[in-house]
Every structure is written in C-alpha cells, then in structure tokens.
Design brief:
Elements lengths: L3 H14 L13 E3 L7 E6 L2 E7 H4 L3 H13 L10 H14 L9 H4 L9 E5 L5 E4 L4 H4 L12 E3 L2
Parallel strand pairs: 1-3
Antiparallel strand pairs: 2-3, 4-5, 4-6
Length: about 160
C-alpha cells in the first residue's frame, strides 16, 4: 500500500521546484475512496482548503500511478486550474518533461496499473489489427461501428 500522504508532499515539492504555484492550503491527508470505479482522483475545495482524494484501488496499486494522480490533482489547486484548461495543461507539460510523468486529462486502468472494476457492455474489434475497444455505455460507435475506423485504417465490428 502506498503512503499517499508522503507521495503528495513529494509531488508538491516537485511542482514548487519548477515554479508551479500550487496552493499552500492543501490538506496534507489524502482521502481514500473505496467506491470509486471510474475515476482515479479528485480535488475538492472545502472550507478554504483543498482536499485531494484517490481511489483505494489506486492507493493499493503501483506507486507510479498513485504519484501521477496526486500530481494531476495537485495541479488543480493552482489559481485558474480547476478545469483542464490551457494553464493546467502547461503545468502538466512542465511536470511531464521534468519528471517523466504522463499527466493528462484522463487515463486508463492499464496505464495506472490497476484492474478494471467494471466489465464492458460493448466490445469492438478491428478486422485488420485485432485491437479491441471496450465501452461501458451505448454510443454512436457501439450502434454503428461500420462508420468508424481503427488507427491502423481497419474497420470495426462489434463483438459484444
């Protein structure tokens, strides 16, 4: 199990070393969410302080995924960075370049090194390269896969 509180402090020091203006009002105790199935982390502003939360499964997974999520959430404490706008993206790019992170707006279970909690309701497969695309919800892609192409140029078919 990762020591999320210590990892958060390390991430904050990294951001400060790059001149990224993270807030000084961050709760040092990282909350853990046992029910989070779709997100890895969250940053909330309550009573004048920022609270950072990570999914329990991420806290129990590889350190790299937990650390990167904490960095992602810490960037939301910067002024003007409550969303994933240009300022947030520029700070994420700085962290990525300096420390080898791959901080982005979204991530995958595979990248974070944790197991998917929910089974996909739809699976699409490329007829050329065999790549699979898992989806939880119905969409234009799941209803009409013939309208879409894989990165390799192959057509998609629905398997499930």
């Amino acid at each position: 199990m990762n020591d999320c509180d210590a990892l958060l402090q390390a991430v904050l020091r990294e951001a400060e070393a790059l001149g990224i203006p993270v807030s000084q009002n961050i709760d040092p105790e990282v909350k853990r969410n046992r029910r989070a199935a779709r997100r890895f982390g969250c940053c909330r502003f309550r009573e004048g302080r920022f609270e950072i939360e990570v999914a329990q499964r991420l806290a129990e997974g590889p350190e790299a995924g937990c650390r990167e999520t904490l960095a992602h959430e810490a960037l939301h404490t910067c002024c003007g960075c409550r969303n994933h706008g240009k300022r947030w993206q520029s700070y994420a790019a700085k962290m990525n370049a300096a420390y080898g992170y791959t901080i982005s707006r979204t991530s995958t279970n595979e990248k974070m090194g944790v197991e998917e909690l929910r089974s996909p309701n739809y699976i699409l497969r490329c007829t050329r390269c065999g790549a699979e695309f898992h989806r939880l919800r119905a969409s234009q892609l799941t209803r009409h896969p013939e309208r879409y192409r894989c990165r390799c140029g192959g057509s998609l078919t629905r398997v499930l």
